[in-house]
Amino acid sequence: MKKYLDNKKGFTLLEILVVTIIIGILVAYAIPYYSRAIERMRVADVLVLMGTVRASQDRNMLTKHHFTKYWHYLDAVPVQITPPGTDNDYFNEDRTEFYTRGGYLSKKYSPSYKVYFENDASGRWFIVAERIGWGGYDYKFVRDFADTVTVCLPNLADEDSTLLCTDYMGVDKPEDLPPDPRTAV
Questions:
Q1: Tally of domains within the chain
Q2: How far is CA 179 from CA 69, 132, 150, 169, 182, in A?
Q3: N- to C-terminal Cα separation, the chain
Q4: What CA–CA distances, in Å, run from 65 to 59, 89, 101, 121, 177?
Q5: Pick from 5, 62, 168, 178: most CB atoms within 10 A?
Q6: How many CA atoms lie within 13 A of 168 on its CB side?
Q7: What CA–CA distance (Å, rounded) separates 25 from 54?
Q8: Strand order in 97-99's β-sheet?
Q9: In-domain check, residue 37
């Protein structure tokens, strides 16, 4: 019986410490990749929304002969759209800005997009998705209604946003990113 008790095996403190350090190093490398993957999923969501809303704006133009900046006038919009006069944290007061996935819930911004429509003096219309909330990213997606290309515009001072936009646009350097279509003549 004594021989059986003397053969107990276990981990030493040194072995546990080494395993903990290795796991810590792996987690330190994995977290940035994980946050980039989450951000790319957010990008995919907002690009689908922009395409759907753009098509809805086309149908609005065909039936009413004008584009609109009000979300509740469109026929294919996110399920969070409610009629004017009802409380909804996904919109600003006049229903011209839509906040995706959380957006402005509980009166504070969470990582999401503010999506809105702009038009210029020449009559061109744009859909803009601006990244808001915490999370370390600062960029916008802009799409001209007359074009099929969505342009990513990063804050060039933010390395993560610049990397995301250069990757999305398929260019190697930030200098090769296309200009803002709202400023093009």
A1: 1
A2: 24, 21, 11, 12, 9
A3: 91
A4: 9, 30, 31, 18, 34
A5: 168
A6: 27
A7: 45
A8: 97-99, 112-119, 125-132, 139-144, 150-154
A9: yes
| Domain contains 7 | no
Exposure string of 130-144, with b = 16+ CB inside 10 Å and e = fewer, is bbbbebebbbbbbbb
Q: How many residues does the chain have?
A: 185
Two structure tokens written together for 102? 């959380």
pLDDT tens per residue, range 14-51: 999 999 999 999 998 888 888 888 888 889 989 998 99
CB half-sphere exposure, 19, CA atoms < 13 A:
6
* Residue in 93, 91, 122, 94 with CA at minimum distance from that of residue 105: 91
Residue 113 φ then ψ, to 5°: -130, 145
Token duo for residue 77:
């919009």
Residue 3 lies in a domain: no
> CA-to-CA distance for 110 and 11, rounded, in angstroms?
43
Residue 111 covered by a domain: yes
114 conformational bin, left if phi > 0, alpha if psi -120 to 50, beta if neither: beta
pTM: predicted TM-score of the whole model, two decimal places: 0.78
pLDDT, tens only, 56-80: 999 999 999 999 988 878 887 665 5
Range of the domain at 77: 12-176
